[in-house]
Amino acid sequence: MEKTDLDFAYYIYLVRTNKEGKMLDFSTLSNSWNYNSVNGDPGYSIIAGYFNKPGQYKVIIAPELTTSSELSELSHRHAQISFIVTPAIRAFSLREMGIIAMLILMVITCVALLIIEYNKKKSRKKIMLAHFNAEAAKGELDQIRSHLNPHFVYNSLSGIQNLMNQNETEKANSYLNKFARLTRNILNDQELISIQDERNLLDDYLSMESLRFKFSYEINIIGDANFPNAEIPAMLLQPFVENAVKHNMAILQDKGKLLIELKSEQKNVILSVIDNGNGFETQKNYAGLGLKLCRKRIELLNQLYKECPISMNINSGTTGTTVTIILENWL
After folding, report:
1. Angle, to 10 degrees, between the axis of helix 94-165 and the axis of helix 195-213?
2. How far apart are CA 156 and CA 90, in angstroms?
3. Terminus-to-terminus CA distance in the chain, angstroms?
4. pTM of the entire predicted model
5. Does a structural domain hold residue 200?
6. What is the per-residue pLDDT across 70-89, written as a single tens digit (0 to 9) for each?
7. pLDDT in tens, 269-288
8. Neighbours of 201 (CB within 10 A)
9. Total domains, the chain
């Protein structure tokens, strides 16, 4: 094709159709061709703005036409390029992005509030269950102490009776005074008691019993200046002290020795009762309820004070018995 024909006779037409081939737009572009300086080939640059709308496009090079209907009749005989322009990805404005961000934030907030409320309900149920279990454990503890206290009272009254039968009136009066003071402390029904008060209770009891059986005893508090004020469950050692007196000191009399220690070790409280009796079989089931009730009481205390567990160990042999109770994290 001659250059003059291209410049003056041929034009560039741009046609946009839909998928069915129906013409949507028709544009006649300039015929001002640009020629390559190297080899002289013609070229033409079409502005991108012509392709803003999506659809199927045809670029047709044909002689000048007066109507678009002429193009459909001649297009198959002229050079053309077909291509498709897809819809552009929609860009959100700052306002739209702000609205979307607010909606997302509202959804996240609602979900977070629902989760928090669910967790609160779950926590309330746990607290109610823990409270119920604690109340049940306290009830059982009270029942156990109601069994242990009469046991102590019976032993004490037996001691007074023995002194009266032996006409040791003065000792019986002293015993009775100590018994009255001890009974008042016991009937306070406190679950927790200070180390010092626990020591005083044990001292009152042992001073009474030593009047009967002539044994020697020692009670030591080992710790810093604040340790005697620390609180522990009341009368933890009392049943074991009673057993030591009943089964060993009563037999050994003035040869009997009893050592009680209440000591601190880091954050733990360690209570121990050591006697020089003949010992007993720790695994054997005895008819008495004392040891069973003590173990059950410790089990219930562990339900109430889960962060501060209590454990008990009994070593017994022919040279004596050692009962050790460890209260972890009570200091």
Report:
1. 20
2. 94
3. 106
4. 0.56
5. yes
6. 666 655 667 788 888 887 77
7. 999 999 999 888 877 766 56
8. 20
9. 2
